[in-house]
Design goal:
The protein is α+β, with helices and mostly antiparallel strands. It is built from four helices and ten strands; from the N terminus they run H-H-E-H-H-E-E-E-E-E-E-E-E-E.
């Protein structure tokens, strides 16, 4: 939170409400919520590689999100969103001690979470502090939702194991300075699987 901004507490409350509402909506959509027992986490566990041809072009999604902004604000927003939304070439989900899951995007720092528990503190490679929370459900397909909350907004990644064996990750970024949400889909294939 920036100092000297008289509206920062109000923005923080709005962000918390948006994050809570998003979590409630996704929890309802995910179906039964489970702890991360080995048999529940197993279908999503492992190393995954980006299928760039099957994924959305993140730069195009960012351009659509910032398009209605004023020219100067648009340049700043595009740069910030681009820096924070790389199409990571890989991701990894690992079972850790107890019900803890380890989630790693690219060469980043592993986020350790217990699905369904309170948000946990997390700090990325750039040193940005945030919280991360996860919900694991089975619904029609194996699903995991992880939500990162920073001082600037909220990023939700919804992992869905698709019938063809690929992993679809639907990303939604919202924030008080964005006029519309940034949304895009990344598609991953299990490491070592044929394209």
């Amino acid at each position: 939170m920036k100092r000297g901004n008289p509206f920062s507490h109000g923005r923080l409350r709005v962000r918390k409400l948006l994050a809570a509402a998003s979590a409630a909506i996704w929890a309802a959509a995910l179906g039964p919520v489970h702890t991360a027992s080995a048999q529940v986490a197993l279908p999503l566990a492992g190393e995954w590689r980006l299928d760039a041809d099957a994924s959305d072009v993140v730069a195009r999604a960012i351009d659509q999100t910032v398009q209605p902004m004023n020219f100067v604000v648009r340049m700043v927003a595009r740069r910030r969103l681009t820096a924070l939304n790389p199409a990571f070439p890989s991701l990894r989900l690992a079972q850790r001690a107890g019900d803890t899951l380890g989630i790693t995007w690219g060469a980043g720092v592993e986020a350790r979470v217990v699905p369904g528990s309170a948000p946990a503190p997390y700090q990325d490679l750039a040193g940005e502090r945030m919280t991360v929370r996860a919900i694991l459900g089975t619904g029609a397909a194996w699903q995991l939702e992880e939500t990162y909350v920073t001082g600037d907004g909220t990023r939700t990644n919804r992992w869905v194991l698709r019938p063809d064996g690929t992993l679809g990750v639907d990303v939604t970024v919202v924030g008080p300075r964005l006029m519309r949400a940034l949304t895009y889909r990344l598609v991953y294939r299990r490491a070592g699987a044929a394209s």
